[in-house]
Amino acid sequence: MSRGVAEMQSIAVQRVQKPAPLMVEDQARADWYGLLAALWQAPAPESLLRDLRNAPVDPGTELGLAFGGLVEACRQFDADSIRQEFDTVFLGVGRPEVFLQASFYLTGFLHERPLADLREILAQAGLARSEAQSFTEDHMGVLCEVMRLLVQDGGEQQSNLEFQQQVFGSYIGPSFEALCDALERSESAQFYKALAPVARAFFAIERQAFDFV
Asked: Domains (ranges, CATH) in the chain?
């Protein structure tokens, strides 16, 4: 994935501490988390779609193949149609068609104990929700932004890895498959159907890696 695709703006969380230098592997992980965070927090702007349309694709891996499907979806849809789909699928009137909050997949409800626990975890990691962000901390886009910031803080540090493992193992890992299933079943999702295989493949790699931490 090119740096142009990975360098996206997000207001999910604000950093309390300055990041440390990154290893190449951790930069790649941060890039994937940044991409998922951007696409789940807001409709993709035309600038991001343009970068994705021109991004190189490696079909030799499951993640690369899934990313190729997302690139193709970016070529089929424009920013206006994606904005309408985002509103229909994730916002809606009343109950959204697809929930992006991990707490919903963990408990069947919103604003439950997992959210309160997550806020405590983030405070320990030196992270806090930005005042400009309307989503709760258990929103999948926000969780991906949290992971991006944790990775960028220096993923090789043991204390940092423990925070990453806690956030992923307690929130992303137990909920991403149900979320991806919901996206793939959605009658309104077209562009975001292509995001589900990317998320599924990347998170599967992350889960396997954390099993060895």
From this structure: 20-210 (1.10.3480.10)
Per-residue pLDDT tens over the stretch 1-26: 433 343 333 334 444 444 556 677 88
Contacts of 185 (CB under 8 A, 6+ apart): none
Amino acid identity at 56: P
| CA quadruple 7, 26, 180, 176: dihedral sign | negative
Residues contacting 153, CB < 8 A, separation 6+: 17, 19, 20, 160
Decide: 5 and 52 in contact? Cβ < 8 Å: yes
DSSP 59: T
Evaluate the CA torsion angle 58, 174, 147, 185 in order and state its sign: positive
CA 38 – CA 6 distance, rounded (Å): 9
- Cβ atoms of 204 and 168 closer than 8 Å: no
Residues 159 and 41 sit within 8 Å (Cβ to Cβ): no
Is the CA virtual torsion 6, 50, 70, 102 positive or negative?
positive
Share of the chain above pLDDT 70, in %: 87
How many helices (H) and strands (E) in the chain? 11, 2
Single-letter amino acid code for the residue at 49 = L
Cα separations in angstroms, 128 against 15, 55, 73, 120, 122: 7, 32, 33, 10, 6
